[in-house]
Amino acid sequence: MTDLRVAGRTWAPPFPLDLGAVLGPLRRGPGDPSFRTATGSGTGAGVWLTANTPAGPGTLRVRRGDAVEAEGWGPGADWLLDGLPALLGASDDDSAFECHHPLVAEVRRRRPGLRLSATGRVWDALLPAVLEQKVTGTEAHRSYRELCLRFGTAAPGPLPDLRVPPTPRAILSITDWEWHRAGVDGARRRTLVAAARVAHRLEDACALGGEAGRALLRTVPGIGAWTAAEVAQRAWGDADAVSFGDFHVAGLVGWALLGRRIDDDAMAAELAVYAPQRQRAVRYVLAAGLGKPRFGPRSSPRDHRAR
Hints:
Elements: E1 5-11, H1 19-23, E2 35-38, E3 46-53, E4 56-64, E5 68-73, H2 77-82, H3 84-87, H4 102-110, H5 123-131, H6 137-151, E6 153-154, E7 163-164, H7 168-172, H8 176-181, H9 186-197, H10 199-202, H11 205-208, H12 210-217, H13 225-235, H14 249-257, H15 264-271, H16 278-287
Antiparallel strand pairs: 1-5, 2-3, 3-4, 4-5, 6-7
């Protein structure tokens, strides 16, 4: 990949901005080759992310000073720079949000810079979301890393170990044994192949937004409410897209708001007062970092490559 660099952009957000909290959900595990955070003031400092854009692959670096400074590389650099405000929450309207729990009110007060990012891209959010279906985070992140390294492309720009996630065409080129090597079982690979075949149409979900956008995603066999919500949260900053069916979310919400374990139905009832911004309330709950009591052993990661 050539080191094609374009002019950067400086943007002054008209609201408090917690850069790490806004961009953090885009990272898929500690070894994500498409996302990098480097502290300090050196040439590599900042948040780095890669993307497949309508113009081609691109790399974006974002740094926070008095204003936000961004630089882009590759054919998709201009597209990424144009989308910088939305990426950092400029399209996120929280003006009508009301706090109905003391914890939510306290976190909202302490974390005014926590906004919902919108990448404007469905495919790059869909690929890792499908990989995270019904497996541990460790398993999903390992598979995502393997697919990026083997079937993604070298990211434009100065960091040689950054990768752009595989395109839909690249996913369609993967053979059965290569899926096996990446630790992806049959159900998830069939979902990814089905999504890759109609990926150009799925990008319309960003323009539709909300439930209509999530419904479009769910037309693909294997994509249910959980996966659609995970994509919607990142691709268009859907403030109401709760990840029902998640192994952890209902428990965390229950212990934080009610002091007890609850299931998805009880969580839906408890969050109903926050509609149409239920996911924003969940983000505040997760940002509190309270966790939940453990009553048994953790789920053990499985290695599908050994089967």
